[in-house]
């Protein structure tokens, strides 16, 4: 048995990283395998716990609302205390990068579409933009960043908040391709690339000059989230000094700089805890002995390599992360073929109207209290397999705005249970 | 994937009937791209070259464009360094490097003048094995000539090969010469047998890596075979020289298939060689036995890690105290091997290894040797040089021979292969 660990975590997103960090802190030799670049860079970077439940009104205090959720919701499985504990862990890991831990109340963050999203934690770079600060706002978009239409977002926001919001589109300073990547623009600001060598004008100052013309009475200025990659704090500071008002980032779609910064921070934390991280190949199969998983097969091209472990955590994501798969025959979990509860009739997977409360959004595995996936008889599929994050069923993360919170809380509980259940110690 | 598999209930519309006549149909791969741009944000060339449109364009977008017969391939495909990081970035399994390789092959075949300086230069660079075969006949003379500044100047002016780099020295005895002088394998075994794919570089330039591979495997009781072989094709793919790569592949697949028939698995010490045999061969060529060769090919330490208690053996080993700055080659990353060397070295008493981060070294084989690509190559490498210097090591470490050149060139540190440390640790 060559590649052998105490705990093997499959999946490198928020749930998998949390599980691995907690297992390693519990004393387990831990390995995390992830197929590809994780999906954090496709996420806004906002970390929500519970934004909506049962009505169109945003939830003010998510922890108070958790007991009202249905029994099968993962939050009910792990309990409110575990949710709180996982957020405390997140606050510790993201110190300086995130804010929001000072209160149980949801913050209201503007989105790039000009809506307001209730969220529990938000990047420090987005803090000055919260809607709870009633300050007149200027949103600045760039011609080259087509994913953010600042005048449109401003118009929508202005209609729903008690302060003035204006939007303006400017040219990004410097010579870039018409389809320049946001990461390229972020790098230009990070490095403060010189645009004018004679006058020593850098990208940040040039940007501030462009925006100053439109500032007017605005008490803060928001940009799409591309204000620096490695050093967003320094970029904001320069812009704030030049403009004389607070500057913030509006979280964006992929590729998301706040998501990438969070990914970097989690990688550092995994490394600090001694977790072995391997990426590039998917988990595809397993071997078992009397209801225990003995090894997980990692696909390396045209052959499979066995990874042995005492305990396994499955955190492969939902329909988007491909932890849950579907075809015309049904819905399945592809690695361990765990049972995924589903209606017999395919026409019951969905309702006709797109924005209805869709059954398919809740598809995923059902678990026991220790997060072990259950078979169709309600018995644990394997004695040493736990699941965390979007691979779990019973909740609609997009509708509830609960994706990050469920990943953190179930990741923490799965990682802790795995390390406590080690038979090797 | 599941959509394609479940298509048995209806007949799909034939959109590209010409694909039936033997062309490579990558349509399903192109359709899998949902334009998240993760590949573009991970591309090391796009990060430093504002004119490079990035892998999303080079792959699925260009692939769609070229379905129209009157559409030329954009010449920017030649600025792709074939580091293949886009492959490991893509969350949707789009076969990006396969698309780049086919587009580059088509570009070179149809749009590049065969008498142009660029074509001739690229042809020479991508056939390094042939060049090295000639040079290694008279290693001292070649080394003297290639380090001569006048010769370097001429290379740059006439050939477009940068004069900034020091040409790699040829060993006075090649690996294969050593192997036959040694009389081949010292261990015979019917159960444990491996065929060593040494590649060009271990043979002509760093035979000490090949010798380390042989000694480490023999210490675990393996019989090592060294079949006849040609270049793995890596530099040929990167230069769009697909007919050359195919010719080499015919020899390699035939020889390695025969070794597999004799009970051996195939081992490479260069991560680009193992990636080529595993991934590019079956993606680009349809040869008898090519799937089998892919399934049986391993990187050297990967193999021992799977089949032996390598970690256990290393726990009991010791080497003279040395600190390494380790760089994981992109092509190791692609095979899921990026953390392996550090994990193994951590177990060796005396050896200390620090990972210098996940940036690309920038040389990408022949890419950084081209006069017009040299600056791009060094800009990409800057982050790694910086991290190497921060680590204050005794030496650098990597599996890839050209990454090693770049590390030495950018920092001045001597660079070793993990197998050499394994040899110190495990072989008496």
Describe the fold and architecture.
The complex is a heterodimer of chains A (425) and B (428). Chain A has 425 residues and is an alpha/beta fold. Chain A has eleven helices and 19 strands. In chain A, strands 1, 2, 13, 14, 15, 16 and 19 form a seven-stranded mixed sheet that branches. In chain A, helix 1 (14-25) runs parallel beside helix 9. Chain A is globular, with a radius of gyration of 23 Å. Chain B is an alpha/beta fold and 428 residues long. In chain B, helix 5 packs across helix 7, helix 14 packs across helix 25 and helix 16 (242-261) packs across helix 18 (290-296). The radius of gyration of chain B is 22 Å and the shape is globular. The termini of chain B are far apart. Residues 1-7 of chain B have low confidence and may be disordered. Chains A and B meet through helix 6, strand 13 and strand 17 of A and helix 1, helix 3, helix 17, helix 18 and helix 19 of B.
Radius of gyration over C-alpha positions of chain A, nearest whole angstrom: 23 Å
Q: Count every helix of chain A, treating DSSP H or I runs of 4 or more residues as helices.
A: 11
- As a percent range, the share of strand residues of chain A is 15-25%
Instruction: Using the CA coordinates, give the radius of gyration of chain B.
Output: 22 Å
Distance between the termini of chain A: 18 Å
**Structural class label of chain A:** alpha/beta
* Biggest interface, CB < 8 A: A-B, 39 and 43 residues
- H/I helix tally of chain B: 25
General form of chain B: globular
- Approximate helicity band of chain B: 40-55%
pLDDT < 50 runs, ≥5 residues of chain A? none
How many beta-strand runs of chain B?
8
List SSEs of chain A in N-to-C order.
EHEHHHEEEEEHEHEEHEHEHEEEEEEEHH
Whole-number average pLDDT of chain A? 95
Biggest sheet details of chain B: 4 strands, parallel
Report the average pLDDT across residues of chain B. 91
Q: Care to count the β-strands of chain A?
A: 19
Principal-axis shape of chain A equals: globular
Residues in helices of chain A, as a percent range: 25-40%
């Amino acid at each position: 048995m060559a590649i052998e660990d105490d705990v093997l975590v499959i999946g490198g997103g928020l749930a998998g990283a949390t599980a691995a960090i907690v297992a390693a802190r519990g004393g387990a030799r831990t390995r995390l395998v992830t197929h590809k670049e994780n999906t954090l860079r496709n996420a806004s970077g906002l970390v929500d716990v519970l934004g909506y439940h049962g009505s169109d009104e945003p939830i003010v205090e998510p922890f108070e609302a958790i007991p009202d959720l249905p029994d099968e919701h993962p939050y009910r499985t792990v309990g409110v205390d575990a949710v709180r504990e996982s957020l405390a862990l997140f606050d510790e890991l993201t110190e300086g990068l995130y804010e929001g831990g000072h209160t149980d109340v949801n913050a209201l963050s503007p989105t790039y579409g000009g809506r307001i999203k209730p969220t529990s934690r938000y990047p420090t770079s987005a803090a000055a933009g919260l809607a709870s600060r009633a300050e007149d706002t200027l949103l600045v978009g760039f011609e080259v960043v087509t994913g953010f239409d600042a005048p449109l977002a401003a118009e929508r926001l202005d209609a729903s908040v008690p302060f003035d919001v204006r939007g303006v589109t400017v040219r990004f300073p410097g010579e870039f391709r018409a389809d320049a990547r946001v990461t390229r623009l972020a790098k230009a600001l990070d490095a403060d690339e010189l645009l004018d060598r004679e006058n020593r004008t850098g990208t940040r100052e040039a940007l501030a000059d462009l925006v100053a013309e439109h500032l007017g009475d605005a008490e803060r200025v928001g940009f799409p989230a591309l204000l620096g990659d490695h050093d967003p704090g320094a970029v904001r500071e320069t812009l704030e000094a030049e403009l004389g008002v607070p500057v913030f980032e509006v979280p964006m779609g992929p590729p998301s700089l706040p998501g990438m910064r969070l990914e970097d921070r989690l990688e550092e934390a995994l490394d600090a805890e001694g977790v072995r991280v391997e990426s590039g190949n998917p988990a595809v199969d397993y071997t078992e002995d009397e209801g225990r998983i003995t090894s997980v097969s990692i696909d390396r091209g045209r052959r499979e390599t066995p990874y042995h472990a005492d305990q396994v955590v499955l955190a492969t994501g939902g329909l988007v992360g491909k932890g849950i798969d579907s075809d015309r025959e049904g819905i399945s979990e592809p690695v361990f073929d765990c049972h995924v509860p589903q209606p017999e009739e395919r026409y019951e997977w969905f309702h006709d109207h797109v924005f209805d409360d869709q059954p398919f959004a809740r598809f995923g595995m059902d678990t026991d209290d220790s997060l072990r996936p259950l078979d169709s008889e309600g018995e644990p599929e394997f004695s040493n397999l736990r699941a965390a994050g979007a691979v779990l069923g019973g909740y609609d993360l997009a509708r509830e705005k609960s994706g990050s919170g469920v990943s953190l809380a179930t990741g923490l509980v799965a990682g802790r249970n795995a390390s406590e259940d080690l038979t090797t110690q | 994937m599941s959509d394609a598999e479940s298509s048995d209930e209806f007949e799909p519309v034939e959109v590209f009937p010409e694909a039936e006549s033997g062309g490579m149909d990558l349509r399903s791969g192109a359709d899998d791209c949902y334009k998240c741009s993760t590949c573009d944000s991970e591309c090391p060339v796009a990060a430093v070259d504002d004119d490079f449109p990035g892998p999303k364009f080079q792959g699925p977008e260009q692939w769609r464009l070229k379905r129209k017969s009157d559409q030329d391939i954009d010449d920017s495909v030649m600025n792709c360094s074939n580091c293949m990081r886009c492959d490991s970035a893509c969350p949707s399994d789009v076969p990006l490097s396969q698309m780049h390789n086919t587009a580059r092959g088509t570009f070179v075949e149809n749009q590049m003048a065969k008498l142009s300086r660029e074509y001739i230069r690229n042809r020479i660079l991508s056939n390094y094995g042939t060049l090295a075969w000639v040079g290694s006949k008279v290693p001292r003379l070649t080394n003297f000539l290639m380090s001569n500044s006048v010769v370097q100047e001429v290379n740059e002016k006439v050939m477009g090969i940068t004069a900034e780099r020091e040409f790699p020295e040829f060993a006075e005895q090649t690996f294969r010469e050593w192997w036959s002088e040694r009389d081949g394998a010292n261990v015979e075994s019917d159960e444990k047998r491996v065929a060593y794919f040494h590649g060009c570089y271990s043979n002509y330039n760093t035979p000490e890596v090949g010798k380390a591979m042989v000694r480490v495997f023999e210490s675990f009781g393996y019989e090592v075979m060294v079949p006849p072989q040609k270049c793995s094709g890596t530099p040929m793919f990167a230069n769009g020289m697909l007919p050359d790569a195919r010719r080499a592949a015919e020899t390699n697949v035939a020889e390695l298939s025969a070794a597999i028939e004799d009970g051996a698995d195939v081992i490479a010490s260069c991560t680009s060689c193992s990636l080529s045999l595993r991934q590019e061969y079956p993606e680009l060529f349809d040869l008898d036995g090519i799937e089998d060769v892919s399934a049986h090919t391993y990187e050297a330490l990967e193999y021992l890690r799977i089949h032996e208690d390598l970690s256990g053996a290393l726990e009991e080993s010791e080497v003279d105290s040395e600190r390494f700055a380790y760089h994981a080659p992109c092509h190791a990353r692609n095979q899921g091997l990026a953390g392996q060397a550090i994990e193994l070295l951590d177990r060796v008493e005396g050896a200390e290894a620090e990972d210098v981060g996940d940036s690309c070294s920038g040389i990408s084989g022949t890419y950084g040797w081209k006069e017009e690509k040299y600056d791009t190559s060094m800009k990409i490498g800057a982050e790694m040089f910086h991290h190497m210097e921060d680590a204050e090591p005794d030496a650098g470490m990597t599996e890839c021979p050209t990454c090693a050149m770049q590390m030495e060139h950018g920092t001045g540190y001597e660079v070793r292969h993990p197998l050499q440390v394994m040899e110190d640790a495990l072989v008496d």
